Amino acid sequence: MINFNSASSPRLADANVVSEVVSHGGFSVAGRGFTVSVATGHGQVRPQEGVVGRFFEGARRFCATGSCASQTRALNDVLFPKPAEVLAKSLPVLNRLGGYACTDAGTFVRPNSSAYGQVMSRLGDFYRDDDRMMANRQAESSVTHAERFGLDRARLDKVAELVDKAQAGCCSTLAYAGAVELLKHAGGGRVEVVSHHGGHNTTHCFIIVGRADPSDLAQIGSWGADAIVVDPWAATIGGRLSGLPLSPPIGNLWPPTQSLFDSLRQV
Predict the structure, then answer these.
(1) Is 164 found in the same domain as 120?
(2) Between helices 15-24 and 69-79, what is the axis angle to 10°?
(3) Which domain of life is it from (predicted)?
(4) Into how many domains does the chain fold?
């Protein structure tokens, strides 16, 4: 195992580093705010808590040059899994989120919906539990703080913890919680929490996995072929958990107008 420190080794993605990875079968990176372990022989990457974007982006650029072609392609697949793979690995937790109570179901779910009975039953159970309601209020307060002062990974993690305690959420708290799980499997791939802004009933928050960088958030056609929309809130009211940009889970609160959290922009 070879160790590199991100603060003292600015040339993490040069040929010498990659050749050492290939020769020795693995490496780890530790530095300002992040630790990464990669075992290339097993085809696994295990990002630990913290920021990994600087290293991953450098590795991605080197892999794209074609140097050590087969090895770097394999490394690229490990460091940058396809969004569909990220989603698949996250499904157990995302499906659990989709089974939580929707706190604003009374606004958005109509009695003629096939999911109405189940959705309202979950909401009734939630309202009968003071501890769950308190956790939900704390999660919503944390979201309000993020809207004023910015959203970072620490706040995402806190909201995810509170959502699990509440077993309930609105679109924003559920999107934050879903993003935390997706980030665990995304390696250096892009995970964003985004919103569509309108009035009270026309504002929505959800997740995009794998939007191309660079691309224009307002131009869906620029996102690349692999991007996926993930919406745990939609699942709580009987809708789809995920979809392609041309067929998102909630099509009438679309497209996104603002990126609230972008894993590639964290420092």
Answers:
(1) yes
(2) 90
(3) Bacteria
(4) 2
